[in-house]
């Protein structure tokens, strides 16, 4: 399964970025093989509106089923929810650890956004 | 004649100046309260509202049957109000600025518009003054199209006084642009001066002649006057920090009605504005 992880750097040994829409990078990682693609999110990170929506659309178009991040705003959440992508908030530490420790059956998925708009 | 009454800082006395200026001039004046987030000219003018109309802004509706998922609408939208993920189409009407770009680029003609309610416009009369104001819907963030709607009631053959919102962002520009004169209301404090400078910078970008009213003129310091002289901004009226004036204001009354000598001062203010505008036209 492919999962998206917000990251401060471009590889699995980077620290996670607590932001989603305005994360530095978004890594799409295959949980079986740990193969990954890193997407530079700087265009979204500097966007003045709609960063979360764009990031969510990218994650959706890359075929990820789950997003691991720190916080996810309402428009990003609605966008992910519309295409059935589950969100796990409050994940910290290294991207690699987050991916290897992730267990779909035990994970607590967010039911709503956990931040206000534009924060 | 279109005069916009603006300020950088809030609470300097825009509404006091706009309502008293309008009431002094009387017949043949229209006041347009464009401070649509918190309109309050009506508190001083007590207009008889004759008509209230909802105001809508167009937002896109995408026909999924016609959409070929080409993504062109997503790419043109500066406000990211459309997202396409696979074959799921999402729109975020609250982000849309109603530019119509998505409809223009759609090769399938899959996009039509529907109205999203922004607020309302109320039209009435206060004695012999024409009164219009806009009232933004609670929760709505998009005020410029509503301000444009209020401004559509401008009558170029008479004197129009626009009560602008504070600040220097889009709603203020929407209220000030294409007016003949901007009357900036300020106060002689560091806060007044700081925000006045921002306001004047915005007015300069718009290329509109500008003059100052200093409210509570006998408090604070002299820095606003030094700045005005340096920038060549005429000080057209000074209103002192006087108990009588404050009492009239606090009761929601007009200074020009309760303290008649102020009527002449506001009429003189108008004559000076008229002179500056005429000089600029030559």
In words, what does this structure look like?
The complex is a heterodimer of chains A (119) and B (282). By secondary structure, chain A is α/β, with parallel strands linked by helices. Chain A has a single domain, classed as Nucleotidyltransferase, domain 5 (2-Layer Sandwich). Chain A contains four helices and five strands, in the order E-E-E-H-H-E-H-E-H. In chain A, strand 4, helix 3 and strand 5 form a beta-alpha-beta unit. Chain A is globular. The model of chain A has no long low-confidence stretch (mean pLDDT 91). The model of chain B has no long low-confidence stretch (mean pLDDT 96). Chain B contains eleven helices and eleven strands. Chain B folds into two domains: 217 residues, 3-Layer(aba) Sandwich (Rossmann fold), CATH 3.40.50; 46 residues, Alpha-Beta Plaits. In chain B, 35% of the residues lie in helices and 28% in strands. Chain B is of the alpha/beta class. At the A-B interface, helix 2 and helix 3 of A face strand 4 of B.
SSE diagram, text form:
The complex is a heterodimer of chains A (119) and B (282).
Chain A: E1 2-7, E2 25-30, E3 36-40, H1 42-45, H2 51-61, E4 66-68, H3 74-82, E5 86-88, H4 95-101
Parallel strand pairs in A: 1-4, 4-5
Antiparallel strand pairs in A: 1-2, 2-3
Helix pairs in contact in A: 2-3
Chain B: E1 2-6, H1 14-25, E2 29-33, H2 41-45, E3 48-62, H3 72-76, E4 82-85, E5 88-91, H4 101-105, E6 111-126, E7 129-136, H5 144-151, E8 159-163, H6 170-176, E9 181-186, H7 190-206, E10 210-215, H8 223-230, E11 235-239, H9 243-250, H10 255-258, H11 261-281
Parallel strand pairs in B: 1-8, 1-9, 2-7, 2-8, 9-10, 10-11
Antiparallel strand pairs in B: 3-6, 4-5, 6-7
Helix pairs in contact in B: 1-11, 5-6
Instruction: Report the mean per-residue pLDDT of chain A as an integer.
Output: 91
Number of strands of chain A: 5
- Give the CATH architecture of the largest domain in chain B: 3-Layer(aba) Sandwich
Going across the biggest sheet of chain A, name each strand in turn.
3-2-1-4-5
The global form of chain B is elongated
Which CATH top level class of the largest domain in chain B fits? Alpha Beta
- Classified by CATH, the class of chain A is Alpha Beta
Ends apart, CA distance between termini of chain A = 30 Å
Strand composition percent of chain A: 15-25%
Oligomer class: heterodimer
* Structural class by SSE content of chain A: alpha/beta
The whole-angstrom Rg of chain B is: 22 Å
The largest sheet of chain B is: 9 strands, mixed
* Secondary structure tally, helices of chain A: 4
């Amino acid at each position: 399964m492919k999962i998206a992880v917000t990251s401060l750097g471009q590889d699995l040994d980077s620290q996670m970025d607590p932001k989603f829409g305005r994360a530095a990078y978004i890594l799409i990682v295959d949980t079986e093989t740990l193969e990954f693609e890193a997407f530079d999110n700087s265009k979204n990170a500097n966007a003045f509106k709609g960063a979360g929506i764009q990031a969510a659309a990218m994650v959706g178009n890359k075929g990820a089923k789950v997003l691991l991040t720190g916080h996810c705003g309402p428009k990003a959440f609605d966008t992910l929810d519309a295409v059935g992508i589950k969100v796990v908030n409050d994940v910290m530490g290294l991207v690699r650890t987050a991916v290897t420790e992730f267990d779909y059956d035990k994970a607590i998925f967010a039911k709503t956004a956990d931040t206000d708009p534009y924060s | 004649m279109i005069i916009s009454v603006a300020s950088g800082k809030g609470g300097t006395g825009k509404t006091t100046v706009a309502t008293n200026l309008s009431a002094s001039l009387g017949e043949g004046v229209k006041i347009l309260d464009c401070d649509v987030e918190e309109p309050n000219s009506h508190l001083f003018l007590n207009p008889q509202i004759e008509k209230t109309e909802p105001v809508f802004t167009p937002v896109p509706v995408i026909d999924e049957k016609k959409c070929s998922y080409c993504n062109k609408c997503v790419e043109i939208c500066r406000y990211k109000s459309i997202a396409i993920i696979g074959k799921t189409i999402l729109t975020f009407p609250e982000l849309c600025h109603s530019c119509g770009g998505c409809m223009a680029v759609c090769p399938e003609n899959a996009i039509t518009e529907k109205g999203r309610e922004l607020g309302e416009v109320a039209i009435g009369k206060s004695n012999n003054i024409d009164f219009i104001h806009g009232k933004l819907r609670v929760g709505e963030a998009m005020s410029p199209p509503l301000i444009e709607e209020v401004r559509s009631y401008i009558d170029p053959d008479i004197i129009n006084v626009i009560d602008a919102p504070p600040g220097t962002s889009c709603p203020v520009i929407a209220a000030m642009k294409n007016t003949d004169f901007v009357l900036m209301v300020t106060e002689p404090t560091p806060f007044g001066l700081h925000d006045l400078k921002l306001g004047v910078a915005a007015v300069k970008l718009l290329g509109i002649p500008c003059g100052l009213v200093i409210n509570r003129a006998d408090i604070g310091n002299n820095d606003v006057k030094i700045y005005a002289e340096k920038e060549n901004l005429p000080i057209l009226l000074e209103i002192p920090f006087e108990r009588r004036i404050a009492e009239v204001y606090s009761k929601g009354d007009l200074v020009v009605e309760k303290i008649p000598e102020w009527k002449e001062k506001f009429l003189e203010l108008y004559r000076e504005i008229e002179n500056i505008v005429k000089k600029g036209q030559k």
